[in-house]
């Protein structure tokens, strides 16, 4: 007969509970998130200015760190419930039951608000953590496993995508996926990722990721920059035609020395108009 060993790592009123960060990252649709260590969150320097961006900052932070702290509102509500039970319990006029129900609903609303604030706070912390060396390594593992999907463009040959945001502020844009090969943005293929906030990954992550892993940047540069040209009976359609290719310059790359010289000038300085 095998001996049962009790696991005390999770406990609550029912005897078990899940830590907030692993539970949040393991939710359905949160595959793009990586787990941020508590050491990073407990460093006040990493939390600079976040208290001004997220409401109920302290309560949300305590929820993320699994600190059992009773809020002031909940403490007052508990006292109100006990007072109603003592004062109105003997009268039995129905006021006690009504007050208790209203207080419990108010407590539930407060917990939901704090839970939403905790998700926002963790997302902004996540955007900062993935720019660090451990965070880049954690995202690199997801990148290798193709957790972010692959580029739908045919000539990218299944290049893995990177999540990014169009803004660093909450409530601006949803998450987008960046392809290092064609250097374009795409929408997530799964509907469960379309509602994710883009600020939780930020605008700097793809650039920092590619510069940190030089081998990936070199691999992308060696890839064939082939584009597709429309043809009718073997003849290419003229670029000036109504049905001709548009925005073709987005996928053009320097070839000759003159092209590279012009590219360097356009990248670092304003070209002179003759």
Automatic annotation (TrEMBL):
<protein>
    <recommendedName>
        <fullName>Casein kinase II subunit beta</fullName>
    </recommendedName>
</protein>
<dbReference type="GO" id="GO:0016301">
    <property type="term" value="F:kinase activity"/>
</dbReference>
<keyword id="KW-0808">Transferase</keyword>
<dbReference type="Pfam" id="PF01214">
    <property type="entry name" value="CK_II_beta"/>
</dbReference>
<keyword id="KW-0418">Kinase</keyword>
<dbReference type="InterPro" id="IPR000704">
    <property type="entry name" value="Casein_kinase_II_reg-sub"/>
</dbReference>
<feature type="compositionally biased region" description="Acidic residues">
    <location>
        <begin position="74"/>
        <end position="83"/>
    </location>
</feature>
<comment type="function">
    <text>Regulatory subunit of casein kinase II/CK2. As part of the kinase complex regulates the basal catalytic activity of the alpha subunit a constitutively active serine/threonine-protein kinase that phosphorylates a large number of substrates containing acidic residues C-terminal to the phosphorylated serine or threonine.</text>
</comment>
<dbReference type="InterPro" id="IPR035991">
    <property type="entry name" value="Casein_kinase_II_beta-like"/>
</dbReference>
<feature type="region of interest" description="Disordered">
    <location>
        <begin position="74"/>
        <end position="104"/>
    </location>
</feature>
<comment type="subunit">
    <text>Tetramer of two alpha and two beta subunits.</text>
</comment>
<comment type="similarity">
    <text>Belongs to the casein kinase 2 subunit beta family.</text>
</comment>
<feature type="compositionally biased region" description="Gly residues">
    <location>
        <begin position="88"/>
        <end position="101"/>
    </location>
</feature>
<dbReference type="InterPro" id="IPR016149">
    <property type="entry name" value="Casein_kin_II_reg-sub_N"/>
</dbReference>
């Amino acid at each position: 007969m095998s001996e049962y060993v009790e696991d005390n790592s999770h406990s609550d009123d029912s005897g078990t509970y899940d830590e907030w960060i692993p539970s949040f990252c393991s939710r359905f649709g949160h595959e793009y998130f990586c787990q941020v260590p508590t050491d990073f969150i407990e460093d006040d320097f990493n939390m600079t200015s976040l208290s001004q961006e997220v409401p109920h900052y302290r309560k949300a932070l305590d929820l993320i760190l699994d600190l059992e702290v009773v809020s002031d509102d909940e403490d007052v509500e508990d006292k109100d419930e006990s007072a109603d039970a003592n004062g109105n319990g003997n009268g039995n006029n129905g006021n006690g039951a009504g007050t208790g129900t209203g207080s419990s609903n108010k407590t539930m609303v407060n917990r939901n608000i704090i839970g939403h604030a905790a998700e926002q706070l963790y997302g902004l912390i996540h955007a900062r953590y993935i720019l660090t060396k451990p965070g880049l390594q954690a995202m690199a593992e997801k990148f290798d496993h193709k957790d972010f999907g692959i580029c739908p463009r045919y000539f990218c040959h299944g290049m893995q995508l990177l999540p990014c945001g169009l803004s660093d502020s909450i409530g601006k844009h949803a998450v987008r996926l960046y392809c290092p090969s064609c250097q374009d943005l795409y929408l997530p293929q799964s509907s469960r990722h379309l509602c994710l906030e883009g600020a939780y990954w930020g605008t700097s992550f793809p650039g920092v990721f590619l510069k940190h892993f030089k081998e990936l940047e070199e691999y992308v540069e060696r890839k064939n920059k082939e584009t597709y040209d429309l043809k009718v009976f073997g003849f290419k359609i003229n670029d000036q035609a109504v049905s001709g290719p548009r925005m073709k310059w987005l996928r053009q790359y320097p070839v000759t020395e003159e092209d590279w010289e012009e590219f360097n000038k356009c990248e670092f300085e304003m070209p002179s108009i003759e």
